[in-house]
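Researcher: I'd like a candidate sequence for this fold, 184 residues long. If you have to choose between options at a position, lean toward the conservative one.
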């Protein structure tokens, strides 16, 4: 039986993008990037909302020879996973191994996750919040960046309540901190 895991980076005050939509303050160095690669490697399916998909799809065509080793590894991983994009506004998806679904159906997602021999990753605060509200989110993974941005796009929706059990943590040389939680 698989599990549905949410991973994202966030500022210390809980935002994945600042008020201006920018997130360069959360750009991982090689150590953090390698850790995230290892964390997400077992997930053979990733679920995305439209905004996260539009940010992530760059990995499909980046010239590998131009990338540092950790980024090259991530690009290769991303190209080799199945992706499901939930969007009612996107006309089509343009990346390989990608399916477009119009509606996020928690029961269908739970059924797919339960049938998966590996974890299923979910990307984006809005989609992860919908999964959490529906009771289908199993784990939350966050890399906290040493920045306070004062507003923007939240890691998880305001007003969402989850009880979490810490099961993993790691501190990085650049001041970033990883925390892994199970949803209680």
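Model: Candidate sequence:
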């Amino acid at each position: 039986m698989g599990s549905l895991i949410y991973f994202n980076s966030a500022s210390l005050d809980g935002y994945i993008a600042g008020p201006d939509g920018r997130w360069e303050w959360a750009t991982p160095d090689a150590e953090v990037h390698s850790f995230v690669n290892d964390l997400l490697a077992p997930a053979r399916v990733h679920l995305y909302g439209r905004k996260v998909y539009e940010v992530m799809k760059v990995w499909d065509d980046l010239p590998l020879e131009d990338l540092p080793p950790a980024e090259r590894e991530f690009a290769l991983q991303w190209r080799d996973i199945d992706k499901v994009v939930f969007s009612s506004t996107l006309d089509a998806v343009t990346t390989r191994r990608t399916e477009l679904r119009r509606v996020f159906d928690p029961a269908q997602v739970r059924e797919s996750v339960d049938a998966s021999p590996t974890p299923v990753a979910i990307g984006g605060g809005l989609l992860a919040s919908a999964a959490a509200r529906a009771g289908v989110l199993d784990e939350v993974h966050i890399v906290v960046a040493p920045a306070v941005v004062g507003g923007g796009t939240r890691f998880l929706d305001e007003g969402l309540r989850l009880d979490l059990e810490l099961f993993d943590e790691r501190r990085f040389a650049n001041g970033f901190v990883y925390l892994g939680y199970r949803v209680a």
